[in-house]
Q: What sequence folds into this?
């Protein structure tokens, strides 16, 4: 298990959440 890979996955999930929130606000 690589800590770097886990951190990257978490970062990607956070970016997706931010994008979803931005889309909801736009709508």
A:
């Amino acid at each position: 298990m690589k800590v770097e890979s886990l951190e990257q996955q978490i970062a990607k999930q956070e970016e997706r959440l931010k994008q979803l929130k931005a889309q909801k606000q736009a709508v």
Notes: Residues 3-26 form the longest helix (24 residues). The chain has a mean pLDDT of 91.
